[in-house]
Amino acid sequence: MLEARKIFNERKAEIEGFFDHLSSFEKQNSNRELEQTLKASCFLLLYNLVESTLTQAIIAIQDDLKEKNIQYSSIKETLQKCVVKNLIKQGKLEILLHDAFMSKVNVLVSGFDEDEKTLFSGNVDAKTVRKIAKVYGFSNNINHKDAKGGSDLLTIKTNRNDLAHGSKSFSEIGRDYTTEELKKMKKSSLAYLDCILENIESYIQKQEYLI
To answer: Which distant-in-sequence residues (6+ apart) come within 8 Å of 196 by Cβ?
Structure first.
């Protein structure tokens, strides 16, 4: 989990710096178009933080399974199904035909390889996290009131995708939000991610992926 925490802290610092710059720009300039572009860019930064942090957290679970040489037969059924599904998707049916191989950790890892690359791919919100939590078996309980249950992640994802796909311009999105509204979304998403990281850290420490 060290890498996930490192990425979270580094990108959190980048975002805090960007928001400081945005606030300063608002006070000192009257260029509305540039201001709107800066505000819309907040969604790109926030989404990048969300997806990269959660991806590294899931990789940390997979790495723990590998390092501890956990057998396929020892993990939760939902996780077993995830492995089998990904092996089939990768065309590695021959592995499924040999029971001896199914107890090897390299099967666990290879069964996650493609999943790691396409785990989120521009589609992370709280609903997605709940689905992943159910598969892996880590807690999705969010006790921090500022996190708002991760509800702001949907707004962040939607606006990020509209920008990435060209559905809306930076000006169009930027003019729909005040800086204060963006700051609230930043605060809630950071609180949410911090809670999820704590849940996954506890999950790994207690080996809650085991049956």
So the answer is: 54, 57, 129, 140, 142
Residue 7: inside a domain: yes
Domain hosting residue 190, numbered range: 2-205
Task: Judge whether 210 lies within some domain.
Answer: no
DSSP code of 125? Answer: S
Please give the Cα distance from 95 to 142 (Å, whole number): 38
For position 101, what pLDDT does the model report?
Answer: 55
Contact 193, 57 (CB under 8 A): no
- Residue 45 located in a structural domain: yes
Alpha helices (runs of H) in the chain, residue ranges in sequence order: 2-28, 32-67, 77-89, 93-96, 105-118, 126-136, 152-164, 170-174, 179-205
The per-residue pLDDT for 93 is 66
The total domain count for the chain is 1
41 token code pair: 């860019």
Spatial separation of the C-alpha atoms in residues 165 and 13, rounded to whole Å = 27
**Does some domain include residue 27?**
yes
Amino acid at 138: F
Which of 133, 113, 136 lies closest to 192, judged by CA? 133
Burial 181-194 (b: 16+ CB within 10 A, else e): ebeebbebbbbbbb
The answer to whether 157 and 47 are in contact (CB under 8 A) is yes
Contact 93, 87 (CB under 8 A): yes
Q: What is the pLDDT of residue 47?
A: 97
DSSP letter at 109 equals H
